[in-house]
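REQUEST FORM: STRUCTURE PREDICTION
Request ID: SP-0412
Submitted by: Lab K.M.
Chain count: 1
Length (residues): 482
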Amino acid sequence: MGHGSLNDVVQASYLVATFLLIIGLKRMSSPRTARSGMLWAGVGMLLAIAVTFAYLPGVYRLVGSLEDLGGWWPRLGLILAAILVGGVPAWWSGRRVPITEMPQMVAIYNGLGGGAAAAIGAVELYSGRAYLGSLAFPLIAVVGALVGAIGLGGSFVAFLKLQSWMGSPRVIGRNLINGILGIILLALTVVSVHPAWISPELLAVDSLIGIFLLVSLAFGILITLPIGGADMPVVISTYNACIGIAVGFEGFVLQNPAMIIAGTIVGASGTLLTVLMAKAMNRSFGNIWLSGFGDVRTTVAAGPQRTMKSLDARDAAASMAYMEDIIVVPGYGLAVAQAQHKLWELMQMLQKRGVRVRFAIHPVAGRMPGHMSVLMAEAGVPYDLIFDLDEINSDFANADLALVIGANDVVNPAARTDKSSPIYGMPILNADQARQVFVIKRGRGAGFSGVENELFFGPNTQMVFGDAQDVISKMIQALKEL
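STATUS: Completed
RESULT:
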């Protein structure tokens, strides 16, 4: 097969792989089809990798013919080494990571994608290949490396915060510091696009690109450092969008259509998700990135201590057995306790008694978009019992009970009534409007944002303290004894 024919096959294969990625992404938009969507996308990625083995972009440009493949074998060895270094830990961690740690895994893998984009840009700039064509190539390579490095640094910080290995320190004058660093980074970006604009000798100074990448990485770390944990879902989706764009840019530099199309799709979907998440919190994009909201150590409301009414798990179960309509609000505490299977077992027992059971999912429940939907699907909850905020919010007023399990900020009435609250204006689930509210919670502390929950002190609220797994197990046993 000639060079031209092989190249046509490769390009066609990349387009097929991209089409499979698009199908997979589309099917991932629903919990019902998400599993098959992962398989479609996986097949597309496998095809793209296989095609890369069949033909390395630039090989023929360097060796000239199929007969002279001596320089190809070292590249093959590097590809295999990269697959082993990246694939083996990913396979191991992917099989072992619990659902509660999925957000931080997404954050770190997202960051590694940004690092890969930055590495591609760095290689093209270091080698000088990006400077051989028109000005568009070094510009796109530099911007892709810039965004990728910022995404790597920011995603790494997000991982540490979600893993509870890092807090949200308040940096005095952080906006000024970031502004100055941003100006320096902008200057480095301009110089990196065309070093000869400053001095012809700079074109040969490799350290310039290294300094540019290090400053980009530092900028990503510093702008993410003060952002609170409650905003991490928006931060992750923002970096996901940025890194998708970076991959698309570097695909243009490599003239790889699969990278261009896939990166553009990821960038567009990540941008849309960011907008939807910010809307769900009723906060502007700038407010999230500039306010530093969410510092658990500093935003807890001060004032006189109030009393929470408590209830025994067995008494709560006995009450639920004679109700007609229950809406369950799952939260991150449920995921931590790994009680989703027990919860569904309890709900099935109530259904057999004629109780109507539904699950209400807030867009930012958990620590990443779709976290609670995935949790419910894992437990086997039918999809027709899972409702979004807009679909079910008006039904709380007619429900006998809102059973809140490990959720906090997404059911806090302060978002509607307290203008001084950091979460004021955020759409919430109207759990407080149900006739009764049972809240299963391990302790009396505030939620992930650090804001005290007014729901816990409501006249129709009773707290069932304890680990969700243990509490629900007691409820199940109580129902069996009725």
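NOTES: Strands lie at 325-330, 356-361, 386-388, 401-405, 436-441, 461-465.
Reviewed by: T.R.
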